[in-house]
Design goal:
The structure holds 2 protein chains of 2 kinds. Chain A is of the alpha/beta class. Chain A has 9 helices and 14 strands. Helix content of chain A is about 45%, strand content about 20%. In chain A, the strands form 3 sheets. In chain A, strands 1-2-3-5-4 form a 5-stranded mixed beta barrel. In chain A, helix 3 runs parallel beside helix 7 and helix 4 (about 175-185) packs parallel to helix 5 (about 215-220).
Chain lengths: ~425, ~70
Amino acid sequence: MRNYSVTEFIGFLNAALNEAVFPDGVAIEGEIAEYRVSQGKWIWFLLKDNDSVLPCFGTVWKLKQPIEDGLQVRIYGQPKVHERSGKFSVVVDRVEPVGEGALKRAYELLRKTLEQEGLFDPIRKRPLPKFPRRIGLVASRESAAYSDFLRILGNRWSDVEVNSVHVQVQGKDAIGDIISALSFFSAHPELADVLVLTRGGGSLEDLQAFNSEEVTRAVFSSKIPIVVGVGHERDETLADFAADVRASTPSNAAEIVVPDRIEIRAAIESLRHRLVGRMEQTINDRLTGMDRSVRVMERGIMSSISSFRHRQRDLADAFSLFVDRVAGSVRDLSRLEAGLFTASDLFLTRLSGRLLNGSRLLESFNPKSVLRRGYAIARYQGQPIKDAAAVAIGGRLDVELHQGQVGARVEEIIKSKNQ
Amino acid sequence: MPQKKSTPEKKVDFGQCYAELEQIIDWFDTGEIDLDEGLKKFERGLDLAQKCRERLAEVETRVNELKLKFGETL
């Protein structure tokens, strides 16, 4: 018999279990009990059936599948004796629910977890292109889903290119295939404006890939808007919830991603109709506007004309007024003239009267005219004599009479008394 | 990546045509329409509607089967 140290023994035991007895690990089915998580890192539970229990250990980063007591699961892992405690457990790598009830339960658990994380949040949903030019199709080429999708697509629409990637939609490769296909399209956005992930209906077990956390996350993180259409009307997978748009069936997915050409033809007709209507309306509006402008212009012209007429009349009035004034002036002038004549007549008459008087007066001053009345002018030595002293006795005097002259001799000189 | 030349890549893009047609209708709906521009848009709209109809009639769906080696794409 060989002696071991404790450490040696446990080491030997673990090596024997892992390398000799279970080189591929173990898969064990049972029901979960006493599930607990310590320090947010370590997961402990018992796997049991009617007669036995098996301690299990795992880590939260490895066991993504939500677990709760009572869940029927299959665990994958390695049996191990722990050095520190000497306790035996199975170190679990993977847990998967088994049986319809367990699957449903697991589905609910995961749905709740992912929902809380926001993977199904409506705010995150993106709109799909109205007229996609390229569709990335992720489906199994052997499936009815694939042919249904393409058939409906062709019936509805034609202007589209489908880039199809074949994947397994159930079985062990399904999850990996689908994730690869989705990330391939995310890396090649030029190949698809929209993605369609689809498969036909099936049992919960068949649809397991579409309910897996990995595929759900891959759908959620697709860089291209994605439609997921799985199964029949009533199948709702977690991938469906994470999609931008959920289709109830593969055919429905086709209806969602492309429009119906009959509808679009009608829509084009209606757009054309509206276009023509708008144009007619525009032209009519413009014509009405023009009518209005013409009317405004007419009114403008009419009012110009009438104002012109007014002006004309004003002008005529002014002219006649002017004529009147001129006529008045002429009348005034003739009156003035007449007055002038009258005045000048009077003036002349007066003037002539005065002239007459003047001439009479002048006449009266004429010495000759005095002579007529009997006066005579006596001249001595040619000079009229005004003083008796100027003459001498015997001197000759020339006496002028009214008619004729006489010569006379001075006989006496009589001087005036005051001399 | 898309090969040009004889391939009919220069074809009308249905989505663009349709969107432009809708834009033109919207433009007409916004009021205040310049007649010259309106006529231009009207003609363009009719042309687009015609192109869309032709495009609907002529095209076939094309399906390309892509072969992925799954190990490598990840």
